[in-house]
Predict the structure.
Amino acid sequence: MTTTFPDISLSTERLVLRPFEEADAPALTEMMNDELVTMWTSVPHPYTADDAHAWITEGAPGERTSGDGIVFAITEFLTQRLVGIVHLRHADWRLRAAELAYVVAPWARGEGYASEASLATAGWLFRDQKFERLELRTAADNAAAQQVAQKIGCISEGVLRGAWIARARTDDDGGGWTEQRTDLIVWSLLPEDLEGAGEQFAGASEYTAFSDWN
């Protein structure tokens, strides 16, 4: 039984989802230092160029080769600019289930990129990789992430109480951060939930081996 994802790129009408390249490091560093990314994720803060280099050369490739998941850099088809990340993680190859996470650069928000990229990834995971369940977990106060989950057809399954630690700005003048425990909302997406959802994202089913695309 195959227990690793292929080295692949996906394409939609507006986006190319591909493996990270070292040339992405400056844009990745800037994106991961955004205040909302710091607030809702567990990435190091401040996020340095060394952090970006380590993720691109070791962390992201290691996700795929270990069988734990796969990481896609989301780029605009026309400009090739990095607009975000889609991360499939915690893959269970026996249950054919995985968890989805996403980040979008601040300048690219509001364009529907997270929904488009997530739907393309889900479609590929279900059709090509024969997975049967995709799970998302969003912090209770992260309304933007919840809107993406709803838009791609996810079903809310419940709340994990106190299951995440978010970060918030402190009240002092130093501009520091403090950690606070919060709930997680669990969402799921099954293959049948995608029926009809793909119509609003035409072209989301195209994918090629990354070596061919590159």
